[in-house]
Amino acid sequence: MDTVRAASTSRHAFQDATRVLSSVLAPLEKRTLIWLAHRMPARVNSDHLTALALAAMLGAGLSYWLASVTPVGLLLVIVCLALNWFGDSLDGTLARVRSHQRPRYGYYVDHVVDAFGTLFLLGGLALSGYMSPAIAAALLIAYFMLSIEVYLAAHSVGRFTITYFNLGPTELRILLSVGNLALLVHPTAEVFGRTYRLFDVGGAIAAAGLFVTLIVSAVTNARTLYRAEPIPGRGDR
Fold first, then answer.
1. pLDDT profile of the chain (237 residues), mean per 10
2. What's the total number of domains in the chain?
3. Contacts of 97 (CB under 8 A, 6+ apart)
């Protein structure tokens, strides 16, 4: 009985962080997801969609690996990214529309799935020949470090930031899909008179952008928390 009471108290005490979602496509995407959620068969629940999102990212990674043999793999990646958007974006909306929210479970599982999905995607890119393993590793490290900062801020600041510079997961999927189509036509890029793989250039820029975003976000959140919790007694001097 004490265990049940403690679990119930913990459940009621939990407060979800405020979601900051201000991407370019967010208003249209929200309406689309609500429309889809109302039309989903009753036998499909949010867990099914989360599993689909993870399977789709595994498929995207395998498709990039296939692209080392045939460019058809690049087109399959686009299909997998679309399926990932469907599952990853709709699972939470479906739970909210049906009033089946499980805040702690949903938060935990969703972001563990995101971590594994990103690992699958960038692992496949590293094996594809379209991006060097070093650039893929740098991009993965930058993503994981920014993710850690976001999750820490969600807990300590109470703000869960999903988008930066008006770009969110949906826009990034679209940019990656466009990049795949560009690879079919021109897989290299010339920078300062030297030729590099197109995705090496794009990956290096993306990794640098993530690291800059990480630093700015970390400094901003640290300043916010310092002002909220100054060193005791310092204000009396």
1. 45 61 82 94 94 97 96 96 95 91 90 95 95 96 95 87 82 94 91 91 95 94 92 65
2. 1
3. 34, 37, 38
- Residue 55 is part of which domain span? 18-236
* Three-state DSSP state, 189: strand
Q: What is the tally of helices (H) and strands (E) in the chain?
A: 8, 4
- 30 located within any domain: yes
Answer yes or no: is 4 within a domain. no
Against a cut of 0.90, is the pTM above it? Answer: no
Q: How far apart are CA 143 and CA 214, in angstroms?
A: 9
Q: Which residues in 197-212 are b (16+ Cβ under 10 Å) and which e?
A: bbbbbbbbebbeebee
Domain of 36, CATH number, reads: 1.20.120.1760
